[in-house]
Each structure stands twice: as structure tokens, then as C-alpha cells.
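Researcher: We're teaching a course module on how sequence relates to structure. For the next exercise, students receive a sequence and then see the predicted structure as C-alpha cells, so they can try to spot secondary structure elements on their own. Here is the exercise chain.
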Amino acid sequence: MKLSDKWFTAFSEDDNGNLITINGREELKEFKDSGKLKERAEITWKYEGDSHAMPDVAIAESMEKMELALKKAVEKDKLGILTGIYTGSNQKTWVFYTRTVRVFGERLNEALAPFEVFPIEIYTELDPEWEEYTDMYEMRGGADSF
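Model: And here is the predicted structure for the students to work with:
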């Protein structure tokens, strides 16, 4: 299975009308169908946003550094893959599917050790059918399925 770096962008709104930007990864059907990535890990960073509930430049740069380090650490051997990113409404959430959240957590700690402590929360659950990804993918528009 080859992991592409092809992404789509979609938009949604929160209950207050603030824009939420959704970035989703394309070409993941083989990964879902393999049945190897059954656990979902969501990492959320809440922030004080600008007038549109988006992060300021400094926070966005820190978020990007964290994202790149974590993506590199878990995708190098496909322990996990980043499937979606939601930004807006004063928070950013990265969604990963992984083989095991225990080892994912270990990699997360190793990857983020060189940085200052990031204000993140982590949520995990079993999602063998990739329900979250499917819901996000449908926001993309178009008739094709992943």
C-alpha cells in the first residue's frame, strides 16, 4: 500500500457561524480495507483565536511544527496515518488512524519531546469501519467514494 500525500479541502461552520476548514487525505481505500488501522486518535489543540476563531500566525507555526514531527514519526512505518485536519472554532484537530493507540502514544511522546509542552488533548476510540473518515470524506462533495 502506497500512502499518497494528496489532500482535499472542504468547509463547514460551527454553531456560531465560524468557518471550519477541513483538510482530508485522498486515496486511503486500501488502508481502510486492509483492516490494520482500526483505532482512531484525535489530537486537539484549543487556542484563543482571532475574530474569525482561527489561530494567529505564531500558534499556527507551532501547530505546523508539531504536525510535521508527529506525521513523520507515525507514518514512517505506517504505524498510523494522518487522515484529516479540522481548523476553526478556536481549535485544531488532527485525526489519525493507527494500528495501536499504545504505540501511537509512545511515538507521540518521542516525536514531541524536543518541543515545549503543547496544549493538546488526545481522544481515542475503536473505529474499524472508519466512520469519522467517511463522514469527513462526504463533506468533500462529488459523487465518488473513497
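Model: If you want an answer key for the exercise: The mean pLDDT is 94. The longest strand covers residues 80-88.
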